[in-house]
Amino acid sequence: xxxxxxxxxxxxxxxxxxxxxxxxxxxxxxxxxxxxxxxxxxxxxxxxxxxxxxxxxxxxxxxxxxxxxxxxxxxxxxxxxxxxxxxxxxxxxxxxxxxxxxxxxxxxxxxxxxxxxxxxxxxxxxxxxxxxxxxxxxxxxxxxxxxxxxxxxxxxxxxxxxxxxxxxxxxxxxxxxxxxxxxxxxxxxxxxxxxxxxxxxxxxxxxxxxxxxxxxxxxxxxxxxxxxxxxxxxxxxxxxxxxxxxxxxxxxxxxxxxxxxxxxxxxxxxxxxxxxxxxxxxxxxxxxxxxxxxxxxxxxxxxxxxxxxxxxxxxxxxxxxxxxxxxxxxxxxxxxxxxxxxxxxxxxxxxxxxxxxxxxxxxxxxxxxxxxxxxxxxxxxxxxxxxxxxxxxxxxxxxxxxxxxxxxxxxxxxxxxxxxxxxxxxxxxxxxxxxxxxxxxxxxxxx
Length: 447
Ligand code: ATP
Ligand code: MG
Fold this sequence. Notes:
By secondary structure, the protein is an alpha+beta fold. The chain is 50% helix and 10% strand. The chain has 21 helices and 13 strands. It has helices spanning 10-21, 31-38, 53-59, 110-115, 138-144, 153-159, 162-174, 180-188, 198-209, 214-220, 222-228, 249-259, 264-272, 294-308, 313-325, 334-344, 346-361, 368-387, 401-406, 413-427, 435-445; strands at 26-29, 46-49, 65-66, 74-79, 82-88, 90-92, 104-106, 125-127, 131-133, 146-147, 177-178, 282-283, 289-290. It has a 7-stranded mixed sheet with strand order 3-4-5-2-1-8-9. Strands 6-7 form a two-stranded antiparallel sheet. α12 packs across α17 and α17 runs antiparallel to α18 (368-387). The longest helix has 20 residues, at 368-387. Magnesium ion is lined by residues 31, 44.
């Protein structure tokens, strides 16, 4: 195995070295070591040490420190405006709720601290003096691309059910597999997720969905997904009996997730876009399956699920809109497309392209060329409309309510009525969006 290249940035190295100068042991640890060994730039550098929080505070008394995690042994030291979390070696006390340890106990050896961490690839520490401390085979699992629990998987998931989702999230992020014993334990203990707060689950879920290995996780662990979203269960293995589809609803869903750009909202849209299909299923005389009305049903289910997961409102609203719209064909006329952009906004329409592309990519070959051609046509039409003096909403008109009132229109509903009528005519290409022609037409429309 080649020598690990762990280049600690100066601000974090300062922390490790200053602790060492005062006779303490200190290491960078966890995600930053893992990412460095993978050749990825770590997003933050965490330090662990045998100094107690009070000792850490003394060593860094001249620097700004934040005492947020003090009772768990964590002090955040600011070095050149960069935060470094410094945590005293610790083990967790009893877990009585599969969530929070009832207490933390400080310990003296780094190996004991590493033993309480979740996965072998996250349980390595490093400092320039001692080199890499890898007591659980983290390097080997990194090389093999495996997520493996430190210690007995059943015990570890019982301590903290969230680790089930963390395993899927890390595997998806790095496109790793999950080691067999760990994978069995995940399935066996999946119900423990019911004891974990929805906020923590939702965060890990989004992290998993945007990973490059999301497809593999969704296909391998549908039963885990069903603990978080029982509404998904009817999709598993649900055959579509339709020439547009090569996969059952869940397999299609998983492929559609992976085919979408790696953005949380878009991946959530694909996860939920067909969730209402099983309840909308009908079969015609020819034996072909149909799912009339499924986008609206899926959108309502998406609303309920994301509300339950305490999603932020912006994501919730965006996902529900895109799920509701995912199956509507784009308008083919200039007026229709203008109305569509006016109704949804440019950003949603742009995302709708991503959604449709991902949906098509996860369907059968049947009519693929036509579907792609339709999208290309719609994109061209939008491009043309954008280059023109466009008016998708009343705000885009080169006349406003104040202009109308100056012309003698009484303040009140009449102003809105005329603006709406003007917009409709501009969208139909029956009227030019220019101040003079708009004013002239407004005079005709005035009662
Ligand atoms: P990321 O890049 O996503 O931040 P990370 O490995 O830094 O990855 P964090 O959630 O920031 O993940 O946690 C930092 C470290 O703390 C992990 O590497 C792991 O060693 C340990 N850890 C975090 N959460 C848990 C947990 N629920 N159970 C056990 N160990 C954990
Ligand atoms: Mg981290």
